[in-house]
Amino acid sequence: MRTNVTMQDIANKLGVSSVTVSKALSDKEGVSDNLKIKIKKLATEMGYRYNSAAKSIKDGLSYNIGVMIPQRFTGPNESFYLKVYQQIALHLDSYGYYGILNILSNEDEQLLNFPRIYSENKVDGIIILGQVSKQYIETVQNMDLPKLFLDFYDEHAAIDSIVTDNFYGAYEITNYLIRSGHREIAYVGNIYSTSSIQDRFLGYYKSLLEHGLTLDHQLLLNDRDENGKYIDIELPEDMPTAFVCNCDQIAFELCDRLNSKGFKVPEDCSVVGFDNDIYATLSTPQLTTVEVDIDQMARTAVKSIMEKVSNPNRQTGRILVQGKIIFRDSVRKLNDESATTND
Amino acid sequence: MRTNVTMQDIANKLGVSSVTVSKALSDKEGVSDNLKIKIKKLATEMGYRYNSAAKSIKDGLSYNIGVMIPQRFTGPNESFYLKVYQQIALHLDSYGYYGILNILSNEDEQLLNFPRIYSENKVDGIIILGQVSKQYIETVQNMDLPKLFLDFYDEHAAIDSIVTDNFYGAYEITNYLIRSGHREIAYVGNIYSTSSIQDRFLGYYKSLLEHGLTLDHQLLLNDRDENGKYIDIELPEDMPTAFVCNCDQIAFELCDRLNSKGFKVPEDCSVVGFDNDIYATLSTPQLTTVEVDIDQMARTAVKSIMEKVSNPNRQTGRILVQGKIIFRDSVRKLNDESATTND
DNA sequence: CTGAAAGCGCTTACAG
DNA sequence: CTGAAAGCGCTTACAG
């Protein structure tokens, strides 16, 4: 049933050599226009399809990029990394490449196993999408392939990385709260949990410092345990006027909790999030938040990995992708100063 | 920098032939245990990696399956198909296969272009995930490869398909409402929009028929225009006691709308959804709904396409994957009969 | 303009 | 148990 037409088949029918067919189909020099047209026509008629495996073996390239996502970030309600993967696949397409998704199982991460895409030479480069354990980072370093960390980084590993500018995003949105007249501002998030959450905290802290506000440890609210499992947020006794949440989902939960305790958002407390994901528009009120630019992250990641494929010594370092504040209805202005002015 | 060790390199170092190395590494007959151990050890030391392109060219198989999702189903807040793709990739792994994601652009769908994964022979089979146009279905039929429709089907195309049992799921959940004492029950959804929505409507209708209830066209509420764009749901003058929604997102919107109009769910009206996606738990109250078994769909799709790869004549027909009702808080019991009894 | 030869990395079938 | 030869489908470098 499968036709499986080869260049040789076309050559035979036309009484020419497969070299000529190859040249004609790839528009190379050295075939008369007349013959070229005949060859192309016959190829279409015979349903010829290019065999990319043959090209791969010649070039030593698979024309695939592996995208590895740790299993733990793939729960039923998590789709952020899948979205990023989708954009990566889209951008790879414009380079003539394909994206192969590889979920890194907890077991393989624990046992420090190489992924099959690596040991079978299925890819020309690997994008690791989502923080892996310190030990697995070493395993990644031992892989003899271009590789890139996406959405996290590691100080010890000399592996290029692309991350959202978490620090600056949190800094900006905290500045916005302060410009809006807020002075008691809480941060919600476990600052020992991931580098993203920690960096967002530091951006918040920098904003406080710059405005001469002191960091009140009573206003650092935990939202998850060491394993990343969400816990109930304990509201402080002396309530702040605003909350900077490490992500929209937590901001969403916080709004719920505040509402149920009788606090109105934003009348009694303002709440801001981070990510601009689905939770930002589903919460009541809709959240003012920092949008993570998924498309730009994917675009940058693809550009960077493709450069490394053609030049394995290429170093791109740590690239920060800017987010931008999306203004919605969860912040109350406590003063008269225009709140939408930039710093 | 890339080592790129081949079997020949190993053979040279050991003064044997590459045939022997090949046999040793793939645990074939015909190599002494002693030599086999030496070869394996050296292979590890040299960082040897199998070249799957060479295998592909020998076998005429790419060991990839393409998963094609029409662009229109990949909006920023849509992740259902990406979840399905993720599960497909996971299940393919256990067959030694990989999943290549291919977003079918609106343009390519319009122009009836073959996807690159097909014309470059990158895959051994294609799963089309999400309804494509009638014309594109013909294009798919012309592809000389095992193929499968996932989450939709077409009466004219003799292409095997796997769908959620939309009909039966809607039938069951409507039965449940009727058992709970409801008699005026609306259906929310554009019944000309997709086969899924239409089939869910028919399941709802069958339940009415079986219980001697008449279909009231005032209670068929539209939720989207011909292009699939959501429109505001118009509530009927004579309110029903329950609403069967074609999906959770619409049920979520409906709850919002009912709440804002002063109707309480489920006290004044009951609402049920379909899908059991993120909207089911984010709505107030949480929704009773039909869960679509994503994992089972992916598992079945992978099994089916793998069978077709090894035997292109294999026909699997239209396979229905059962969902199950998830009971939550959006249905009020209007009678005393136990509402959780099965029919 | 056209094509014979060699080679990419591996495996299969066969010979020793 | 071990290996020389041929071949998978294509391309490159070279010769005519």
UniProtKB/TrEMBL annotation, chains A, B:
Give every HTH lacI-type domain span: 5-59
> Which Pfam family, just one, is annotated for this protein?
LacI
Which residues belong to any copy of the HTH crp-type domain? 1-43
* InterPro entries, sorted: HTH_CRP (IPR012318), HTH_LacI (IPR000843), LacI/GalR-like_sensor (IPR046335), Lambda_DNA-bd_dom_sf (IPR010982), Peripla_BP_I (IPR028082)
Q: Which UniProt keywords apply?
A: DNA-binding, Repressor, Transcription, Transcription regulation
Coiled-coil region(s) = none
What Gene3D superfamilies would the database entry show? Answer: 3.40.50.2300, lambda repressor-like DNA-binding domains (1.10.260.40)
List the SUPFAM superfamilies hit by this protein, alphabetically.
Answer: lambda repressor-like DNA-binding domains, Periplasmic binding protein-like I
The protein in question is named: LacI family transcriptional regulator
**Species this protein is from:** Paenibacillus anaericanus
